[in-house]
Amino acid sequence: MTECIFCQIVEGDLASDVVREGSEWLAFRDSNPQAPIHILIVPRQHIASLEKVSEQNSLLLGHLLLAAKTISQEQGIGSDYRIVLNTGEGAGQSVFHLHLHLLGGRALGWPPG
Ligand code: AMP
Q1: How far apart are CA 75 and CA 50, in angstroms?
Q2: Cβ neighbours around 50 below 10 Å, total
Q3: Backbone phi, psi, residue 21, to 5°
Q4: Count of C-beta atoms within a 10 Å radius of residue 97
Q5: How many CA atoms does the CB half-sphere of 106 hold within 13 Å?
Q6: Contact yes or no for 81/102 (Cβ under 8 A)
Q7: Which of ligand 1's atoms lies nearest the C-alpha of 30?
Q8: Of 2, 14, 43, 51, which one has the greatest count of Cβ atoms within 10 A?
Q9: Alpha helical stretches, state H, the chain
Q10: Strands 37-43 and 18-21
């Protein structure tokens, strides 16, 4: 079995709270939520980080963003939300499988920590 926990979730080998899925991506609740709504949107394909994407992943990246928008509407957080894409350990990335964080349901301060 792969060591990547998000690949395990995509494969159904590790339980998750799935909220929506597309042919290229899966969205599930973060197990350590930082906001009332905290959902991760991950490509089914293993890509370690944004540093590893190329031009051929352009459509996929667009689909991930559009999924975030759709899910924010479905989850009732409307048009006030934040999308985070931590890239690299120094920026807080802890799971090296590309993912967007969708955060909403509370006021979100700026700058982030
Ligand atoms: P990052 O630090 O940007 O790499 O984000 C990884 C996120 O994955 C963190 O917010 C974790 O809480 C979340 N996470 C880790 N393992 C799981 C899991 N098994 N199910 C859901 N979320 C997870």
Answers
A1: 26
A2: 17
A3: -145, 150
A4: 21
A5: 10
A6: yes
A7: 22
A8: 43
A9: 5-11, 58-74
A10: unpaired
